[in-house]
């Protein structure tokens, strides 16, 4: 796994502001665990719980974004989750300048089973406000909003 630099770790140093304690995200599994902890500790409240199906969508989007950074983006360079009234904003930074061709597509699944190519269509279908920002020093950040609805 790619080494996570100090800038990445700084994204998780929220302890002083009352946010969840510092976490190191190095894989899709640790990204999912961190995102879930942000939902529990900062989005949910005693009177508001997220719908289970929305949590499943969130965890799938997080997993796909981090996996893409590792597989296609020359490694994970940063990960941030920010709660909003509408859900969670997820930002994943990698080391590659390459923007996926299908990043703003219609979310069509690949024809036939090739073993891959399903991640971006899932992200497009489950997330909103998808952005791809290139960085002057190299790499890019892909940001999305994953909607969360209160459970009935």
From TrEMBL:
Positions of region (Disordered): 1-29
Pfam families: HATPase_c_2
InterPro entries (alphabetical): Anti-sigma-factor_SerPK, HATPase_C_sf, HATPase_dom
Organism, as annotated: Streptomyces plumbiresistens
Top-level taxon: Bacteria
UniProt keyword terms in alphabetical order: Kinase, Serine/threonine-protein kinase, Transferase
Protein name as it appears in the record: Histidine kinase/HSP90-like ATPase domain-containing protein
Domain Histidine kinase/HSP90-like ATPase stretches: 27-140
